[in-house]
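Work Package 3 committed the consortium to producing structural models of liganded targets before the mid-term review. Because experimental data for this complex are still outstanding, the team generated a predictive model from sequence and the ligand definition alone, so that downstream docking and mutagenesis planning could proceed in parallel. The input record is reproduced below exactly as it was submitted to the modelling pipeline, together with the SMILES string for adenosine-5'-diphosphate.
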Amino acid sequence: MSASFSIDVALSNEEHTRRVAAILAPALAQAPLPFVIFLSGELGAGKTTLVRALLRAMGFGGRVKSPTYALVEVYVISGLNLYHFDFYRLKDPDEWHESGFRDALTDQAISLIEWPQKALGAGVSLPPADLEIALSMGPSNDARQLRLSALSSQAIRLLQPLASTLK
Ligand SMILES: Nc1ncnc2c1ncn2[C@@H]1O[C@H](COP(=O)(O)OP(=O)(O)O)[C@@H](O)[C@H]1O
Ligand SMILES: [Mg+2]
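The resulting structure, written out as tokens with the ligand in place, is given here.
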């Protein structure tokens, strides 16, 4: 299945990023599980900021830590499991295999994965992404370019109705 659908949004500042997260959150809450999201973009592009805003918009009121050292942070929001992975630091696949989280990737959860290419490069296999969220630097300090790419038919169904609201 190679169908895909993408939406580009020029984010003017962090508040705009949070607004986009608030639009995405209710759609994600309806996603068929497992649902896998890859986040791409350089350090500081805003991946963790976007995940934090999504968790908040989905109703999580606690502290959202960057999982750079823990590799994964787990959230349960109204019975829905959300896993936030960050493979930035991962060099050794054994570290992942010994983390106790290796089966989390196939759980009935929404998995948000920062630096998936580092996991793949370290020999950790990941499920294919339903949705890719790509962030890159924009024309000013607080501007970012966002591209949402739906890569599965389920993701296309979730994203397509949001296109006009996100623009
Ligand atoms: N429009 C924006 N969207 C997201 N973050 C922004 C934006 N503008 C500025 N920032 C800042 O950029 C940084 C992004 O950091 P972070 O989310 O940790 O990036 P990453 O996880 O991609 O390394 C934060 O300091 C955040 O305040
Ligand atoms: Mg990050």
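Reviewers should note the following from the model. The chain has a mean pLDDT of 95. These observations will guide the Year 2 experiments.
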